[in-house]
Write a structure and sequence with these properties.
Blueprint lengths: L1 E3 L4 H4 L5 H11 L3 E4 L29 H11 L4 E4 L2 E2 L5 H14 L4 E2 L1 E3 L4 H7 L6 H17 L3 E4 L4 E5 L14 E2 L4 H10 L2 E2 L2 E4 L5 H18 L8 E2 L1 E5 L5 H15 L4 E4 L7 H15 L1
Parallel strand pairs: 1-2, 1-14, 2-3, 3-5, 4-6, 6-9, 9-10, 10-12, 11-13, 13-14
Antiparallel strand pairs: 7-8
Length: 296
C-alpha cells in the first residue's frame, strides 16, 4: 500500500514537510510513495481534465516531481519511489535519463518510473513540443532511455528524438534498466504495454461505478493479448492501481473500494492519491495511517 506525496494545491505550499511525511509513512508501514506531473494548468484549456471542460484548482500549484522524489529518497530506506505519470514526450531523453538514473542511484534501486503521453495541448505548447504523434514520441523516448541505460557509448536516432553518441558510464542500480511502467486506457496504449511495458498503471476512482474491478480485468485482458501476440509472457507484466479519491470521501469507502477491487481482480498493489482529500499534511498522515492499519 502506497500514497501520493504532498505535491499539489495547498499541499504544495507545505512542501517543506515532504521529508517528514515520507519518513513517517515508511515507519508506519507504507510500501511506496508517488508523484505525478503537471507542467502548467491552462486558463482556457483546449482539453479539460478527465473528460471535463476544466482543470482542477489543485493543478494551479505543483511541486517538481524529481525534487520531491529526491527528498523522499534521502529520508527513506525501503519504500519504492514511483512516478504516475511523467509525461515522457515533454522531456528531452538525455535530461530525463539523467534525472531518473540519479534517483535510482540515490535510492539504491527503488525507482518505479511510470510514463504517459498526457492530455493537455497547452502543456505541449509550453514545452515547445508538437501535440501530434504523442504515441510515437513516447515510443522513441523509451527507446532512447533504453539505449542510454544499457549501452556505453550510447546513442539513438529516431524520427522525433535524437541522442548523439556520448559516454554513458553512470547506470541505474536496477539492471539491465529500471522497469518501464505505463499509464493507459486506450486500445493503443494498452497494446503498447503488452508489447513493451513491464507494468500497467490503471486507476480506480473513489467513489466509483459498481463493478469497476471487472472493467479493469477487461482492460488488463487487452494488455495480456498484446503481450502474447508479441511473444511475451503476460505474467511478467505487473499492475499497480492508483486510487483516485474525490474530495469529501469517507476513508472507510477508500478502504472498501480497495478491498473490493482486490477481490474482483486479484491485484494486490495499490497506492492512494490524497490530492483532493485534505489540504493538511498532518491530515494526510492521519488518513494514510488509518488506511494502513485497516488494509495491511
Amino acid at each position: 500500500m502506497g500514497f501520493s506525496l504532498p505535491q499539489h494545491g495547498s499541499q504544495a505550499q507545505q512542501g517543506a514537510q515532504t521529508a517528514r511525511f515520507a519518513a513517517e509513512l515508511e515507519q508506519a508501514g507504507a510500501d511506496s510513495l508517488w508523484v505525478g506531473e503537471r507542467l502548467i494548468a491552462a486558463v482556457d484549456p483546449t482539453v479539460g481534465y478527465a473528460g471535463k471542460d476544466t482543470i482542477p484548482d489543485e493543478f494551479n500549484a505543483v511541486l517538481d516531481p524529481f525534487l520531491l522524489l529526491g527528498v523522499a529518497a534521502a529520508v527513506t530506506e525501503r519504500v519504492r519511489l514511483g512516478t504516475n505519470v511523467l509525461i515522457a514526450p515533454l522531456h528531452r531523453p538525455v535530461l530525463l535519463a539523467r534525472s531518473l538514473t540519479s534517483l535510482d542511484v540515490m535510492s539504491g534501486g527503488r525507482l518505479v518510473p511510470g510514463f504517459g503521453i498526457g492530455w493537455s495541448p497547452e502543456e505541449y505548447e509550453a514545452a515547445g513540443v508538437p501535440f501530434t504523434h504523442r504515441g510515437a514520441r513516447l515510443d522513441e523516448t523509451l527507446d532512447a532511455l533504453e539505449a542510454i541505460w544499457t549501452t556505453d557509448p550510447a546513442s539513438y536516432r529516431g524520427q522525433f528524438v535524437t541522442v548523439p553518441a556520448h559516454r554513458s558510464e553512470l547506470k541505474p542500480v536496477q539492471r539491465p534498466r529500471p522497469p518501464i511502467w505505463l499509464g493507459a486506457f486506450s486500445a493503443a496504449g494498452l497494446a503498447r504495454i503488452g508489447q513493451r511495458g513491464d507494468g500497467w498503471l490503471p486507476v480506480a476512482p473513489v467513489p466509483g461505478p459498481p463493478g469497476w474491478g471487472k472493467q479493469l480485468l477487461k482492460l488488463r485482458a487487452v494488455v495480456d493479448r498484446a503481450a502474447e501476440s508479441a511473444g511475451r509472457d503476460p505474467e511478467t507484466i505487473g499492475t499497480i492501481v492508483r486510487v483516485n479519491v474525490a474530495a469529501g470521501t469517507d476513508p472507510a469507502l477508500i478502504a472498501q473500494t480497495i478491498e473490493q477491487v482486490a477481490a474482483d481482480t486479484g491485484f494486490d498493489d495499490f497506492f492512494v492519491d490524497l490530492m483532493y482529500v485534505t489540504t493538511s499534511v498532518d491530515a494526510m498522515l492521519e488518513t494514510a495511517g488509518g488506511l494502513l492499519d485497516r488494509l495491511r
